[in-house]
Write a structure and sequence with these properties.
163 residues; mainly alpha; 72% helix
Length: 163
């Protein structure tokens, strides 16, 4: 793995902040929303992290991490539009939850990939994108994502409101 650049460190540190605030928002409020400060912080950090990811090219060229950054920005904008304008009426809250929670998944895939390919320094846990440990982590995050989305949808239906 190439050495981390200043942009890479900036991206990583803010990414840790975004993931931490996202975990907190979901744990406390069950969803991510601009109606509370922690949701606002998550959205801002996520936008900065996704934007900064588009400037990191230490793996050769435009790759999966860049695609995930673009998907993150699209999901973020979609979730904000759903939350603010309620285009689909009462169903907008479900699309809002889907959008924001998808950005969380899009954070986790490159984060765990980079972590496992860098740590421990000099002898990382994995040396390829096809390594079973990495694939299993990514599949686990995908499963957690689906379970989380289902739980959020049930919670939204039960409570009928967004806080």
């Amino acid at each position: 793995m190439p050495e981390m650049t200043m942009l890479g460190w900036f991206h990583t540190i803010l990414g840790i902040g975004a993931v931490s605030t996202g975990f907190y928002a979901i744990a406390k409020f069950k969803i991510i929303s601009l109606e509370n400060k922690i949701g606002q912080i998550y959205v801002v950090l996520t936008a900065i992290v996704a934007g900064s990811a588009l400037g990191i090219y230490n793996q050769g060229g435009f790759g999966i991490a860049h695609i995930l950054a673009v998907l993150t920005l699209i999901a973020l904008v979609g979730a904000i539009v759903m939350e603010k304008f309620k285009i689909f009426g009462g169903f907008s809250k479900y699309f809002q939850a889907l959008g924001y929670t998808s950005t969380f998944l899009f954070h986790m895939i490159p984060a765990i990939t980079d972590f496992l390919r860098r740590i421990p320094v000099g002898d990382p846990f994995v040396d390829s994108f096809e390594a079973p440990l990495l694939v299993n982590f990514q599949l686990s995050f995908l499963l957690i994502y689906f379970v989380g989305i289902i739980m959020q949808m049930i919670w939204l239906k039960k409570n009928g409101e967004i806080r």
